[in-house]
Each structure stands twice: as structure tokens, then as C-alpha cells.
């Protein structure tokens, strides 16, 4: 069992990684809690016992259910069970579940404690950690939400035993991102160490920049195109799959802008496609439609904004010209 501390002064919390760690749940619950609202989905391969009176709220599967309507339904359920600010919400599931449970917790009574029990690889290495919660609008992904840190996170690796191969690939997409942020050879590590290392990386970044004013934006490497692809595909393309493609696109855009050379682009393919064995082909969506979707990204405070690689490492580049964005899309579409 590994315990990683997310250091946020009086709002610090532990992320516990290991097999069977769901048994540690009671240690993360607020001492004031008398009731728990468990937010989950059908078919989640992990059962928990909060040791408190509780009700289970099952939300729909798929990004089409990641909406304000789902938050309203949950909050009406919280009201019916008499959930107070002293109680707790527990999110059990993948990244969608922890995003929705976290936002519902942030909204109910203007903030109630939440504990996350991620059951997917992507949830463990990224989505459940750091306090970013939210839901989608027709205009874009995660455009409505709140920063609401959990009281703790349990990454029980037992949940991964029955995870579908596609879900494992989604987690690998986020892991590949960490490779470019740190250079760590995560694939050389055992699973528990690999997950723990990803948590450590994200915990360090969140601890230094909780509300994405500076360094935390780097966690969005590959995500600008990824979010556009998810929307363009009507969410048929899963988040981690889209991130893998987005990492390759970010390399092509960096090459167009003269930030990196062709060899560095090839290294992105070697890591994402060859080492992580992820699909890197750009889907055949209209390039100008993708450009418009990327313009709605949350990072776009000063024109088109991307996290891009350079000889000095990954950083944020604002005011990217539409012509450069389209040129990179063409280059990627023409590549292998």
C-alpha cells in the first residue's frame, strides 16, 4: 500500500494506492458524517461499505449523462435523504463518476465533503485527483464545474482486474502524457508503482498550483485537440483515446511553430503509438470544425491556446494562429 499526500495546507488529503485499499475507506470519511450518498454506475466492479447509513445513486453511463440535469437529479436525491453539510458524498467509478460526484458535492449546501474511489486506470492516475469537477454543455466539455478537493482518494487496484481493454488504453493515454511532462519511464514500473508515480506527479503540480493559474495547465498537454475530438465524435471517442491522438497533434503543432524538430515529433510516435500501443491516427473530421471547437477550450483566454513541447520542456503557448493550427492538422493527417 502506498500513500501519497496532496499538500494543500488545511485542505490536504491522502491518496491511497494498492490492492484491497477500499478497506481503508472509513479512515478517510469526515468524523462528522452520519450519512453517505454513494454516486456510482451500473456494473462498477467494486463494492464498498462506508460503515454509515447510506443511499446509492446510480447515474447513467456515457458523456451524454454528464450534464447539469444529472447534478439536479442527484441534489434532489440528497435533499430527500436529508444529507447535511456534515455528511459525505462518495464517488465510486471512473472519471465521469468522480467528476459528477465532485461537482454535486461542491454544489450541495455550497460544499459537502467528498471521497473518491476511482475504479478505472484513468480515474486513478488523473481524474479523481486534484479537485477539478464539472459537467459538459453542448458548447464544450467540462465548461461548468468547480474546484472542490476531496477528503481522500482510494485507488484500489483490484478494480482493474476486470477492466475492459479499452478502459486500460484510456488510462494509458493519460500515462503517456506524464511521460512527456517528466521523462519518467512509467512502463518499466510495476502497476502499483506506476499508478503511485502518476499520482505523485499530479499531486506535486496540484499542490503548487491548485486552480490552474500557472503550472497546472501543463496537465492539459494533448487535451485541446482531445476535447474537440470527443465532441466531434459525439463522445464515441473516449477521453484517453482522444488524449493519445492529441499528444501527437501537439507535437505536429510544435513542429509547425518551430518549437521542436522532426525527430522530436517522431519520438512522440515512438512513445504513444509504439510503447503505449495507442491509436494515433487523426479521425477524418472537418479541420475547420475542429479549429472552432478548439477555440472554445477553457485555456483559450488569449486566442487559441495550447500546451506545447519545446527544447526547454512543455509550456503554455497563447495566441496561436488559426493557419498554424490547420497546417498541423494537415501534417498529421498526411503522416503515418
Nutshell version of this structure?
This protein has 336 residues and is an alpha/beta fold.
For the record, the CATH architecture of the largest domain stands as: 3-Layer(aba) Sandwich
Number of helices: 11
The first-to-last residue Cα distance is 42 Å
Profile the largest sheet: 7 strands, mixed
What does this structure look like?
The protein has 336 residues and is an alpha/beta fold. The chain has 2 domains: 2-170, Rossmann fold (3-Layer(aba) Sandwich), CATH 3.40.50.1970; 221-334, Dehydroquinate synthase-like - alpha domain (Dehydroquinate synthase-like, alpha domain, Up-down Bundle). Helices cover 41% and strands 19% of the residues. Helix 3 (95-107) packs across helix 4 (121-127), helix 4 (121-127) runs parallel beside helix 5 and helix 5 (165-182) packs parallel to helix 8. The chain starts with a strand and ends with a helix. The mean pLDDT is 95.
Overview features:
336 residues, alpha/beta, Rossmann fold, Dehydroquinate synthase-like, alpha domain, 7-stranded mixed beta sheet, two-stranded antiparallel sheet, 11 strands
SSE order and pairing:
Blueprint: E1 2-6, E2 13-18, H1 25-28, E3 35-40, E4 53-58, H2 68-81, E5 88-93, H3 95-107, E6 114-118, H4 121-127, E7 132-137, E8 140-147, E9 152-156, H5 165-182, H6 191-208, H7 223-232, H8 239-256, H9 262-275, H10 287-294, E10 304-308, E11 315-320, H11 322-334
Parallel strand pairs: 2-9, 3-4, 3-5, 5-6, 6-9
Antiparallel strand pairs: 1-2, 7-8, 10-11
Helix pairs in contact: 2-3, 3-4, 4-5, 4-6, 5-8, 7-8, 7-10, 8-9, 8-11
